[in-house]
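Input structure tokens:
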């Protein structure tokens, strides 16, 4: 994984902060990381009474060991990370639209990550080759988050209607706007999927509202301040709906960073300000609108069937040129939210970091000789995984076969110590190490694969003779064949059957001339299994 910044000493943090952030299982549920106490449970006069490196002892008798990298990433430097503000964005005036492919997103986690990152950083992505089928846009939204149902339903159609409840359902041109500003909270992601577009006109336009707001701040600071500090009421109503929300057109976070744009002339209600302030507001409103309508700030797209544009509805304003109502133009859309998208992106990044770390193990210490065998440790594990694939094993068991010997080079005692007569318990070490990222379907067969060798030696008279010379030696170090009570205990374990299958692949995977797929063959599988 990436190198961490230099860690500050625990003394750089107040005692109450350290005590509140103790990572031990008594203070945080190890299954989900949530705290098991409240702030009022802490002694308000808590002090640090002892410190040994990153091990801290408190005046209440509790001790906490802090990860240096974690402390470095939480340094008290006043920063407030927020992926929703302008600081985390790549602002643009015009650009080549970032594109993705739907089928590739489903098959390649790295491509999905690129597409989701484009929405967070650039504000949108144009996804190609989404099936031209009604409702397909819901599958796209569900791949990265949750569909946000509104009064328009989970799914809405954008096409000409005889009695439109919204101007979007006509052929009229639509100026740059954000959707649903009359909602609290507003849907933060919008998807529009083209099913047909056989009309003259009907081009879509996108504008970076954060960039436009930043330009207003630079060109007319007074107008920016007025729009950022004046709540505007937006409203939508029909026979069954009445929605209103009052927010500034330019929303800022407490540090003054641009975090949201709400701009929709169709649903804006009359402002109720003092006379002079009303005139100033309209001057600022017009200045912002003129920036948003600058042709050189707008990206134009003509959506073709199968195209799906996904955009940040709190940042990107979308527009449309008028079109002839006699033709067929049909889009389907839905809403979702950025927290789901950002969360899925974070999971993909975490999984990618784990897979990168595992790949580095295969390419680094895994390249060493495998304990008296004629293959490297990495080649041995890759051969075992190939055997599991050949035999139609479940993905979790394939991963277990691939990773079953990582304990030889992730523990304090190495595989070379095992060959020297010291049991390094690599099955348990590897299982515990991998349990940070994988479930028991992966880790428990690994934990039991040495026990499975001892078990098979006890229940199959011919098995011992099949072992390599090195494996027979390590058997003696690891406890030898099981006794009757151990056999019964092993057989009662729910993962014993998988462990035996893994053991047989382990024994088979020691051929120096065998050619098998490399680590890259298993990266997508590992991505899907990382928790």
């Amino acid at each position: 994984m990436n190198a961490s910044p230099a860690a500050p000493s625990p003394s750089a943090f107040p005692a109450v902060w350290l005590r509140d952030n103790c990572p031990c299982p008594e203070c945080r549920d190890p299954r989900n990381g949530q705290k098991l106490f409240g702030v009022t449970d802490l002694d308000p006069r808590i002090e640090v009474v002892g410190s040994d490196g990153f091990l801290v002892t408190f005046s209440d008798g509790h001790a906490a060991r802090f990860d240096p990298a974690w402390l470095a990433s939480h340094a008290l430097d006043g920063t407030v990370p927020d992926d929703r503000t302008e600081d985390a964005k790549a602002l643009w005036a015009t650009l080549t639209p970032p594109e993705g492919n739907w089928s590739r997103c489903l098959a390649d986690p790295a491509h999905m990550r690129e597409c989701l990152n484009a929405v967070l950083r650039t504000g949108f992505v144009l996804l190609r080759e989404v099936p031209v089928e009604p409702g397909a846009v819901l599958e796209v939204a569900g791949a990265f988050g949750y569909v946000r149902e509104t009064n328009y339903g989970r799914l809405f159609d954008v096409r000409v209607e005889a009695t439109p409840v919204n101007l979007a359902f006509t052929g009229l041109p639509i100026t740059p706007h954000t959707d649903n500003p009359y909602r609290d909270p507003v849907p933060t992601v919008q998807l529009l999927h083209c099913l047909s577009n056989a009309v003259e006109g009907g081009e879509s336009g996108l504008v970076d509202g954060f960039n436009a707001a930043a330009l207003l701040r630079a060109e007319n600071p007074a107008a920016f301040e007025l729009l950022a500090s004046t709540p505007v009421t937006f409203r939508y109503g029909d026979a069954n709906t009445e929605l209103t929300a009052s927010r500034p057109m330019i929303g800022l976070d407490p540090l003054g960073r641009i975090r949201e744009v709400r701009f929709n002339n169709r649903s804006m209600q009359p402002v109720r300000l003092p006379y002079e302030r009303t005139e100033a507001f309209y001057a600022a409103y017009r200045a912002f609108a003129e920036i948003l309508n600058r042709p050189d700030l707008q990206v134009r797209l003509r959506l073709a069937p199968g195209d799906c544009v996904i955009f940040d509805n709190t940042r990107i304003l979308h527009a449309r040129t008028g079109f002839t109502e006699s033709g067929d133009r049909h889009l389907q859309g839905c809403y979702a939210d950025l927290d789901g998208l950002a969360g899925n992106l974070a999971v993909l990044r975490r999984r990618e970091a784990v897979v990168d770390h595992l790949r580095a193990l295969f390419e680094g210490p895994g390249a060493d000789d495998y304990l008296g065998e004629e293959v490297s440790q990495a080649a041995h594990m890759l051969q075992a995984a190939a055997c599991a694939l050949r035999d139609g094993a479940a993905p979790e068991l394939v991963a277990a076969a691939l990773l079953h010997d990582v304990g030889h080079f992730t523990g304090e005692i190495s595989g070379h110590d095992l060959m020297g007569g010291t049991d390094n318990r690599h099955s348990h070490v590897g299982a515990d190490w991998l349990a940070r990222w994988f479930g028991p379907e992966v880790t428990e067969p690994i934990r039991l694969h040495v026990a499975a060798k001892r078990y098979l030696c006890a229940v199959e008279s011919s098995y011992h003779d099949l072992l390599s010379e090195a494996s027979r030696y390590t058997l003696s170090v690891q406890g030898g064949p099981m006794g009757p009570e151990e056999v019964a205990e092993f057989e009662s374990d729910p993962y014993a059957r998988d462990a035996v299958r893994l053991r047989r692949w382990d024994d088979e995977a020691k051929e120096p001339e065998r050619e098998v797929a490399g680590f890259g063959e298993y990266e997508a599988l590992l991505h899907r299994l990382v928790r």
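The radius of gyration is 30 Å. The chain has a mean pLDDT of 92.
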